[in-house]
Amino acid sequence: MTKAPALDERLLYSPPELKAVGSGPDTFSVNFKFAGPDGKPNGDTLSDTVVQRLEEWLHLAREEHEDVPTDMVFRYALGDEQIAQTLKMRPHGYGVWSWLLYCDDLKLSMGHGSLNGGVFCQARFSSHLLWTLGAEQATVALESTLYDLLGSMLYQQSSELHICLDVQGLDFASLDWQRAFVSRVTRMRERPEVPMEEELEGGLSPAEVKRLEENIKQGLIEQQHSPIATTEHRRLATLDFGSHASALSAQIYNKSREIKKHRKEWFEPIWHSNGWDGHTTVWRIEFRFRRRFLADFELNEAFETLDNIQALWAYATTEWLRYVDLDASQDSNKSRIPTHPCWEFVQKGFGALDDVEPMDEQAQLACRLENLVEEKPLQVLENVAALNLDRQLFDETALAEDDLSALTEMLQEGRCMVGAGHWWSWVLEMVQKPVYKRILDEYRGMRLTLGDESADLLRELAREHLATLSPDQVKPLVLHLSSEPFQVVRARLVRRKRRMAKLKACIAGVTGYMRSAVALSGDEIPIRDGHGTLPSFTMSMAWLFKKIEEYDSERGRVHMEEVFKKRLAYGFVTAEKIEEERRLYGVDLHKEDWSKIDLILDDARRRNSRAAASDAVFLD
For tag attachment on the chain, is the N or C end more exposed, with fewer CB atoms within 10 Å? Predict the structure, then answer.
C-alpha cells in the first residue's frame, strides 16, 4: 500500500487531485413483513411456534444473565469462502421490540408484528458488511436466514438509508461554509426568531401565514441559516444539516479524522483501490433518508430503494442542499446563485466509481499484493523462488530463448510446485549442469525449512523477497496467485484489517491492565529483597497467569470455553461448530499447562534468591 510521506516531503507535492475515493450506502435498515402470494404485505403476525422459540432463547438469556447463542445463522458467500455467524439473543427487549438478536454483521429487533403495519422485524446491517458484501446481497442473505426461521414469504421495506461520497482534494474547512450553503433544513425548534422576508413584506393574512408554516414544515422554503458546526482543535470537523430525527438530514465531516479516532483503518483499502494518494485528508458527504422521506417519494420496497440511490443523491445535492459560488453573483437571494464547481463535482461524483472497474490499476494491484502477503506468504515465497530460479537458470546455464519461454510458461502455470516430478525430469534432461542441482535442492527445501515458521516471519520474508523483483515480474505473479474478482479480494483485506485493528486494541488494553495490576500487586510478586527492584516481565506475566487461573476457578470458568464465546461473538465460528469442537476435543485445560507456569515461578524465585544472596555478600 502507498505509504504517507513525511511532512517535509509533502511540501513538495502539488495540490491533491479532486477525486472520489468511495461511494455507497453506509447504513441500511430494513423492515420485514409477512407477504402473500402476490408479494405484498398481508398483515400476518408471528406464529405461536416462532414466538415460543424466541421466548425460550430469551428465557435462557435471562437465566444466564448474558447473551446466549440461538439456532439462527446468518450466512453469505464471499468469493469461494462461506461466512457463517450465529445470532445471539440479548436478555432484554426494547420498546416495541420484544427480542433483540445480533451477530458481528447485523442487528435484528423482533416483535409480534401487530404494530406499524405488520412489521415483525427491523434489521440494521453493519457498515463493514455494506462496504464489503453490498446492501443488495446482505438483504438477500438475511431474507434466507429469516425464511429458515419462519418458512414464509417476506416483504422487505426500506426503513432508513445513509448514502455517502468520500472525496480527497476538497477541504470543507477552507470553504466559506458559514455563508455559501443553501438548504431546505426545516427544524422548527431552531427556526430563527427574526421573521422571514415574506412575513415582512406588508403582513400576511391568517390563511397565508398558515400556508407559509405548512410550506416550511414540508421543506418547500429554503432556509438561509448556517449549518451546525463542530470543531476540534479550532478546525472544522463536522457540519450538520438537520437532526438525526429529521426525515432527511445531511452531515459533512472529516472522515480521515474519524477513522483514526475510532480505529477504522480497515476503511483505507477501499480508498486506496480507488486512487487515494495515501495521505490527503478525505471528507465525507453523507445524506440520511428516514422512512418518512422514503414514503413521501413512494420508495417502499428495499430493492426498489437501492435501485434509486443515484436519484436520491441527485435530489439531495441539487434540490435539498447546495454549495453556491458567491463570487459568481451578487444576488441577495442565494437560491438563484449558481452552484460552485466543487459542489458540481459532488453532484456528479456519486456512482462514478461504478462506471469503470479498474479506476486505479496500480492501487488495486497493491491491494491484491498486500492480501497475498497476509494470507499466502509461503506461496508468495515459493513463487518468488521460482522466478529467481528462472533467472538463475538463464544466467548460469545459458538456456536457449525457446527453452526459457517454455520454462517460464510452466512456472506461471504453477507446475513449479514441489512434487511435480515429471516437470523436473524434463528440466533435468534439458539442463545437465551441476549448478542446477544446487538450485533445485534450494528450492525444494524451502517448504521443508519454512513450513513450520510463524506467519509473521513468513510475511516478513515474503516482503523482503518481493523487493528483489522488478515491477514487470511482480504483476504477473500477483495476478497468477490472486485471480479472484477484485471486489472479493478487497473485501477479504478489509475484513482482515478490521480484525487486526481489534486485536491491536486488545493487546494495548491487556498491556496497560497488566502493568497496572503489577503496580498494585505490592509484594505478591517475588523481587530482590531490600533493594526495591521491580519484578521482571517474565515474573509479572507468570504471576498474572496464576491470577487469571484463580479468577477463572473462583467463577467456574474455563479458558477455552471463554475463548469459544469470544470467537462466537466476533463471528469467526458458529455455535454448531463449537459443539462439534466440544464433542471432539473437550474444553478443559490439562493441569500440565498450568504446571509449566508453576515451574516458571519456582525458577524465577530461585534466580531472585541467588541474586539477593550475591548482593548481600558483595555489600558485606
Answer: C
